[in-house]
Each structure stands twice: as structure tokens, then as C-alpha cells.
User: What shape does this take?
Amino acid sequence: MRETAVAANVAMFVAAVIFGGSVVATRVAVQDVPPLSLAALRYGIGGLVLGLCLLLGARGLLRVRWQDLPFLALLGILLFAVFPIAFNVGLGHTEASRGSLMLATVPIWSATLARLAGRENLTRRQIVGLVLSLLGVAVAVAERGLR
Assistant: This one.
């Protein structure tokens, strides 16, 4: 495996661990902090850190074409406004383990949406794997909800 592939896999593993930890942290925090306030704090701090990085010299790393700005604004609204509020409200009413199971479907949705957008081709084996993964998560979530 090439060095870049190893580095990418390590980075994805670290991101997955941090994201998994954030589910538990959010579940705990949402018991005392309203979901909207928590979302504003989490993403507000992130925005400040990114803004500081841009001011301190990472400005050359930000290259965006003007025609891409509306699409990026839509992504920003979905990922940094709608998602955190829905995530926080959801975790206020369910267990962190169930929330983690539902978040486990993110790769399924990513692959499916990439295919629907015509950006990736999926083999028959990959499609079967996606369907089985989704069914597995559905069974686990439904089983817990039946008790």
C-alpha cells in the first residue's frame, strides 16, 4: 500500500473515532444544553478555529470558483445548520448507541448518493453489501425499539 493510502486510512480511522466519541459527548451535553445552543457552540467554535487558520496563513489552501459558491452555501446550510440541530434533537430523545447505529449508515448514503449523482459506479457486489448493511442497521435499530 502506498504511503498516501496508509495516511488516508489512518486519517479516516482517527476521524471515525472522534466522530464516534462526539455521539456520546453530544448525548451527555444535550441533557443540559438546548440542542440549538449546543449546535451553535460546536460549529461556532469550529468556524472560529478555521477562520483563525485562514488568517494565520492557510489562505492559499482555500481555492473556490465563484460559480461553486451557491452549491457550497447549500452544503454549509445542510451540514452545519440542519445536521447538528437534527443530530442534537435526536440524541436528546434516544440512546447514544442507537444514534451511533443510525450514523453507521452514513457510508451507505454516501455511496448511494454518489452513484445517483453519477460520480461513482458500484459493482453488483457493492450494491449487495450496501443493502445488507442497511438491513443490518435497520434490524438492530428496530429490535431495540421493539422492547
In short: The two ends are 45 Å apart (CA to CA). Residues 1-94 form one domain.
